[in-house]
Amino acid sequence: MRFATYSKYNGALADAINLQDLLDRLADFLLQSGFEGGPHFHPWWGWTGDSEDHSLDALKEALLQALIESGQLTPEMLRELRGEGDGDEDVRREIAELLNELVQKLVDEGYLNLNQPPQVPGNHVEMPGSGMVDEGKEAAQQVEFNLTQKGMDFLGYRTLRHLLSAIGHANYGAHDTAQLATGIETGAAPRPYEFGDTMNLDIAATLERALARHGPTFPLDLDYPDLMVHQSEHRSSCATVLMLDISHSMILYGEDRFTPAKKVALALSHLIRTQYPGDTLRVVTFGDRAREIPLGELSQAKVGPFHTNTAEGLKLARRLLLAQKKDMRQIVMITDGKPSAITLRDGRVYKNPAGLDPRVIRETLREVAACRRSGILINTFMLARDPALVHFVGTVCQMARGKAYFTNTMTLGEYVMRDFLRRRSRRVR
């Protein structure tokens, strides 16, 4: 559709844009990782000029790129951005006001929040090798945005939908087991009530039993032995800890491996919350040290420091899982490097990034054995094929009776989701 009215921006183009599709295109930008220590910090050579900021200026540039890629700008706008136009100030103003309107809509819909009102005294859009719209770049750079919980939920939903569509039809629901219980869904013939059962009475069977014992009398003499309850399949619950490697290799070497891992975490969170309400998901990051991060802070998580303290990550994950009374407990570990650090008894961190240090491996496998004794399954998703990592993960799988998956950033989510759904569709004996 062509909009040729440049005298005054009327918002018609912004209203015609699907905001959710636009947000979906911005997912990688909104979840971008970067290095711990600041947007211009690099672990090896310090400050760099690579910008990974969350300024309003950067958001507008990302919005403009998404609009260009989706073909939602008018031909006049595209010519002006490519530097092929006549320098029409009306067209520039319309582009700037369109971006302002889209930012305002994202804020009004609750997907983003700003540390200042979105109306700033100036606008800036600049495309490499093209024209620009610049009336106040410094002001736009001083306003920062953050992804809200609603925004994270939406990105989790969209990621999950993409992953499930890639897998095909997924019959996911509660976790089936071989036992019967007195729950809400009817799944078997009624049986006499026993103390401790859910009082989910089968009214027809209860009345039939009372009539058979006393005959058709009125009032009906209903006694304790007459009570019959529905039986339903017992649904098991599962506690999951997602362990995310945040060593610097997750973003070095020209590939961001951490942002796709964060998207997988959001998709898992959405799946568990909507389809497995009795389940839990906790997220543990492990670099030099391990720590749990709330899902609400996942979008802002960054990689670093350098090393891979897998042992402390497993120890923390095991403690979180054992604190929950669930039928199943599992660890989903996403990593691209072999263990290179452990935490000593006095709190210091022993590091050896050169290779498979026997001391580091011994302590890490000790934690793997502790997980197995606690009945915790460990499934590992490897984003690299380093022979040392392959050998280590193979040992982990043998000890913990888990599985190892070789994957990459493009197929990581599909592999994790397949494993997760397969684990839950299997009957627990």
How many domains comprise the coordinates? 3
The main sheet orders its strands as 12-11-10-13-16-17
Helical content band: 25-40%
How far the N terminus sits from the C terminus, by CA atoms, comes to 60 Å
List the total number of helices: 14
Query: What form results from the Cα inertia axes?
Result: flat
Gyration radius, rounded: 28 Å
Largest sheet: 6 strands, mixed
Description:
By secondary structure, the protein is an alpha/beta fold. It has three domains: 12-147, no CATH class; 153-174 and 237-425, Rossmann fold; 182-235, no CATH class. The protein has 14 helices and 17 strands. A six-stranded mixed sheet has the order 12-11-10-13-16-17, sandwiched between helices. Strands 7-9-8 form a three-stranded antiparallel sheet. It has a two-stranded antiparallel ribbon with strand order 1-2. Helix 8 packs across helix 10. The protein is flat, with a radius of gyration of 28 Å. Residues 1-9, 39-51, 117-136 and 169-187 have low confidence and may be disordered.
Question: Keywords, please?
Answer:
single chain, 429 residues, alpha/beta, Rossmann fold, 3 domains, six-stranded mixed sheet, three-stranded antiparallel sheet, 39% helix, flat, disordered N terminus
